[in-house]
Amino acid sequence: MKIPLIKPFINEEIKKKVMDVLDSGYLTEGAVTHEFERVFAEYINVKHAIAVTSCTTGLELALRALGIGPGDEVIVPDYTYPATATVVAIVGAHCVIVDVEPKSMLINYDAVEKAITPKTRAIIPVSLFGNPLDYDRLDQIKKKYDLYIIEDAACSIGAEYKGGKTGTFADISVFSLHPRKFITTGEGGMITTGNDAWAEWMNSYKHFGMSMGNVSREGIRFEIPGTNYKLSNIQSAIGLGQMEQVWSLLERRQILAKRYDSLFENIQGITLPETTPKGIHSYQSYCIFTPSRDNIMNTLRPQGVEVQIGTYSLHMHPAFRNGKLFTIAGEMTGSSYAYNHCLALPLFHDLTHKEQDYVVSKIKEIN
Question: Which CATH number does the domain housing residue 18 bear?
Fold first, then answer.
């Protein structure tokens, strides 16, 4: 049985939207991208949504908009995709890497407070796999130490905390639109913020530093040095079509995740990650903890069942042991546990119950 980890949702309506863009001849960022931004902002319930080339470039934009650079420190979790940390080095700041909670795999808030110094300007917590953060605790830390919160919300479109959606709590949040996400544009990202000045600056920077206000009699004006992080109308047509189905796609993922939960009940050796209290998980990935993680991967992949590690422990990789760019702050016991035990399972909109049963039965046999 061939079961992929994820399949993007592409229906005939989405294909038509892409063909309409191709037929129009206007392929770069334009009206379709702007409509995608509007719909995304409306769904999140936030003032500004800014489409960019990736979550990585979006995080870079966020740091630059807040004036973070050489001489500053930014705290990130160890258990995350490398982009969360590398963007800090890209803008010239120093990245301080802290541990995560082993049961939730989210940033350890006590470790964050221990790592704060007079040079700390921001924290980039990750709402990993669609699990929302404890935004109340983050807000306390933000106010206590006068810091910015830039959320790496790559995985968490649709996640909620106390009734509010991820993307509304941090100073700036950045989502990924990579094909592993259930809302995808192939490659791409979306920034959300409620701050007018930051939104205007980021929009200008991603358009080569162009003034985004009224064009003067002299024509276009370039106010700041910028670059090109625009998202094309072609890609945005895919995202716009998927956003029209976001509620049903999200509900389907959550139903399938709850069914996985019930199937794994009482299977010895399998434990499930904790969801943040008062939070609603969006399940970009459905994960389990198992001491047989590698054995399961090595057995199921050749059989056509695509399973995967959760993500990476940065401290294990040479790139993040450069003391000039990165500091590993403390023992990474939570991150190491997550890295060695977390297994991501197939989850997509048309995954069948038969396929779920097959995956779980195979894991039970191996585990």
Answer: 3.40.640.10
For the stretch 80-107, pLDDT in tens is: 999 999 999 999 999 999 999 999 999 9
The DSSP code for 320 is G
| pTM summary value | 0.97
Domain range holding 255?
1-367
Domain count, the chain: 1
Q: Is 194's pLDDT higher than 80? A: yes
| pLDDT (0 to 100) of residue 25 | 96
CB 313 within 8 A of CB 284: no
pLDDT for 217 equals: 56
**pLDDT tens-place string over residues 52-85:** 999 999 999 999 999 999 999 999 999 999 999 9
Nearest Cα residue to 93 out of 121, 69, 62? 69
Beta strands in the chain (DSSP E): 48-52, 73-77, 94-98, 120-123, 148-152, 160-161, 164-165, 172-176, 189-193, 279-280, 286-289, 308-309, 326-328, 342-345
Residue 39: how many other CB atoms lie within 10 Å? 17
Q: Which of 265, 44, 54 is nearest to 164 (CA)?
A: 44
Which string of DSSP letters, residue by residue, matches 262-294? Answer: HHHTT-TT-B-PPPPTTEE---SSEEEE-TTHH
Strands 342-345 and 308-309: antiparallel
Using DSSP's 3-state secondary structure scheme, residue 99 falls into coil
